[in-house]
Specification:
The complex is a heterodimer of chains A (450) and B (167).
Chain A (H helix, E strand, L loop, with lengths): L16 H6 L6 H6 L2 H11 L11 H5 L9 E7 L9 H7 L1 H15 L1 E8 L4 H16 L9 E6 L9 H8 L23 E5 H5 L1 H7 L1 H7 L7 E8 L5 E6 L4 H8 L9 E5 L8 E2 L9 H6 L7 E3 L2 E2 L16 E6 L4 H15 L5 H18 L7 H12 L7 H21 L17 H7 L3
Parallel strand pairs in A: 1-2, 1-4, 2-3, 5-11
Antiparallel strand pairs in A: 5-6, 7-8, 7-11, 9-10
Helix pairs in contact in A: 3-6, 3-11, 5-6, 10-11, 14-15, 14-17, 15-16, 15-17, 16-17
Chain B lengths: L6 H11 L9 H12 L4 H11 L3 H10 L11 E6 L2 H4 L3 H12 L12 E6 L11 E3 L2 E3 L4 H13 L9
Parallel strand pairs in B: 1-2
Antiparallel strand pairs in B: 1-3, 3-4
Classes of the chains: A alpha/beta (450), B alpha+beta (167).
Chain lengths: 450, 167
């Protein structure tokens, strides 16, 4: 299995342009820029490349949504990597920024974009320095500017929500990072009101190889509906945690046992978050699933998420929620892990990061954080477990952006598979849970970390 | 006292401004620059950014208070961004944070008495495979234990301060 996007991980010096060019950087430009823009998009469609930021949307199809008569088109690269458990884009930017820039130039040609932006997470101070230096080098060599596409690196300033594409666009426009209602979708009305494509770093870093070796080659590497390789960020209780570029669809058990050397102390796996902390967990019986977009959503070996025991969560039209491949952030938890404490930490995160626009998310994430926190301390009140499920169900699907779902899904997912652990934390001597709306003071404490 | 950008900073702002079709889009980068220049984003710094970009102060205030990285109060010379999110938590992130808090005599969110450090409890820093981690300036400290984290303080002290605005 060839490595495409992490080929240079760990190779010192490739983040400087001379060394990068010796290893092939910018070598795909002459051919790519000579192609008709539509031909590039066709090649990407053929490649079955799907977005690596979380949703897995087909990239070529997304590019096709730009209106034919668009005058100004923007390409925005989402480098705001902040989904807990995800640490791949940072590696690409640090080790191989010129691969990303080459991808930006080729994608910009396909889209008719004259000025592209890379929105990089504010906390990535080192990566911002490396990327800005690489952009300056590419300008100096004439790959950027001067009739070719301009590229600006834009630093975020600390807000998970800005990884959501419309929030990112508002942030790039110099505003608070509030998500926008869709439609209109960014491909029609995005950055500065113009048609805009937002793609993840890993997605764009795949473009040069697709143009070099062809869409069919790329598609042949993957599964029938998803081309290329897949980066998995393996963290948690593993002997060899790491960032690995692997065959698309590799079974999770093989990644844990063979690639990552199993769990320390020979312990058993209790739970695995397969795609960043917003995804429902898998339990120990669900480790033979291929790590691939469709399988994680539809494989019937994965128990569907429930709103209460026996009643599946309905994503709309009766569609069940199992889990998702998300951003490739895989967090492995061994048999001794306190999953109530983990859930409480996850809920605290989403409460901290809720932008505050939509009531169900703004209030609900705070309630979930408080209730899970008291459960983790063994101070849960009778009714708390049901209350968590009810609040999560009330958030899911009722907000402008997916942050609400990102809190609700793991809440319901952990309850579906590990309900007993939560029930064991209810202190029956306490009075039943008060209605959650009463106290705001604890929420203020939750947010006062910064 | 009203704050003013240095001539070098003004040049930098012009350059930033030229990368966007309107002045408002320069708000985040210019705030980063202001924090570097002035050390933190005081009300006066908000005024200076609003002036230089021709934006309402209320807009700039709204932006500043939305994002966690703009500091409204003076910080230590070095900000320690310590992750306690799930991947770090599973491998001792809270123990690392507690060791730093104890060593520096200050809770997360505060500054050490000698003005050297600010501890911030961070959300996921995208270094999960090398958890637990902290970032100081341009450097990552990875696979930490409470001992190696405390030891890292000596190295961090020798690094340049995060912002020029520290005297």
């Amino acid at each position: 299995m060839p490595k495409i996007v992490l080929k240079h991980m760990g190779v010192e010096g490739v983040n400087r342009i001379d060394e990068a060019m010796k290893r092939g950087a910018y070598s795909r430009l002459s051919r790519g820029l000579a192609m008709a823009p539509a031909a590039i998009t066709d090649e990407v469609k053929k490649s079955n490349l799907r977005g690596r930021g979380g949703a897995g949307f087909p990239t070529g199809m997304k590019w096709g949504f730009i209106p034919k008569d668009a005058k100004t088109v923007y390409l925005v690269i989402n480098a705001d990597e902040s989904e807990p458990g995800t640490c791949k884009d940072r590696e690409i930017i640090y080790w191989d920024p010129h691969l990303l820039i080459e991808g930006v130039i080729l994608a910009s040609h396909a889209l008719g974009c004259k000025h592209a932006y890379i929105y990089i997470r504010g906390e990535m101070i080192r990566e911002h320095a490396v990327l800005q230096r690489a952009v300056d080098e590419a300008y100096a060599k004439g790959f950027l500017g001067n009739g070719r596409v301009d590229l600006t690196v834009h630093r975020g300033a600390g807000a998970y929500i800005c990884g959501e594409e419309t929030s990112l666009l508002n942030s790039l426009e110099g505003k608070r990072g509030w998500p926008r209602l869709k439609p209109p979708f960014p491909a029609v009305k995005g950055l500065f009101g113009q048609p805009t494509i937002v793609n993840n770093v890993e997605t764009i870093a795949n473009i040069p190889a697709i143009l070099e070796k062809g869409g069919e080659w790329f598609a042949s590497l993957g599964t029938p509906r998803s081309g290329g390789t897949r980066i998995l960020c393996m963290s948690g209780h593993l002997n060899k945690p790491g960032v690995y570029e692997l065959p698309m669809g590799i079974p999770l058990r093989q990644v844990i046992d063979e690639i990552c050397g199993g769990v320390p102390g020979g312990k058993k796996v209790k739970a695995v978050i397969p795609g960043g902390s917003s995804m429902p967990p898998l339990d120990a019986n669900e480790l033979d699933i291929p790590m691939e977009f469709d399988a994680l959503m539809t494989d019937e070996r994965i128990k569907p998420v429930e709103v209460k025991p026996g009643i599946p969560f309905d994503m709309g039209g009766g569609k069940k929620l199992r889990t998702m491949a998300g951003s490739g952030g895989v967090i492995v938890m061994d048999e001794d892990t306190d999953l109530v404490a983990v859930t409480a930490r996850i809920m605290r995160f989403y409460a901290h990061e809720s932008c505050g626009q939509c009531t169900p998310c703004r209030e609900g994430t705070g309630w979930l954080a408080r209730i899970c926190s008291r459960l983790a301390k063994g101070q849960g009140r009778p009714g708390d477990v049901e209350l968590c499920a009810s609040i999560a169900h009330g958030i899911a699907g009722n907000t402008i952006c997916p942050l609400g779902d990102a809190a609700a899904w793991p809440m319901l997912g952990f309850l579906t598979k590990f309900r007993g652990e939560f029930e064991a934390r209810v202190n029956k001597s306490l009075k039943p849970a008060p209605p959650p709306a009463q106290s705001g003071s604890e929420l203020v404490q939750i947010r006062s970390g910064h | 006292m009203a704050l003013a950008f240095s001539p070098e900073a003004r040049q930098q702002i012009e350059k930033i401004r030229s990368r966007y079709p309107n002045a408002q889009a320069a708000c985040l980068p210019v705030l980063h620059l202001a924090q570097d220049e002035f050390g933190h984003i005081s009300d006066d710094a908000i005024g200076a950014v609003a002036d230089v970009l021709g934006l309402p102060q209320a807009h700039v205030w709204g932006v500043v208070t939305f994002y966690t990285m703009y500091h409204r109060h003076p910080t230590g010379k070095h900000t320690l961004m310590v992750c306690t999110n799930v991947s770090c938590m599973l491998r001792g992130g809270y123990e690392v944070l507690a060791a730093l808090e104890q060593k520096l005599g200050v809770k997360a969110g505060g500054n050490s008495a000698d003005g050297e450090f600010t501890i911030i409890e961070e959300e996921c820093l995208a270094a999960c495979a090398d958890a637990p981690c902290l970032i100081a300036g341009e450097k990552y400290f990875l696979r930490l234990t409470p001992e190696t984290a405390v030891k890292a303080l000596e190295e961090i002290k020798k690094m340049p301060p995060d912002h020029k605005g520290h005297h």
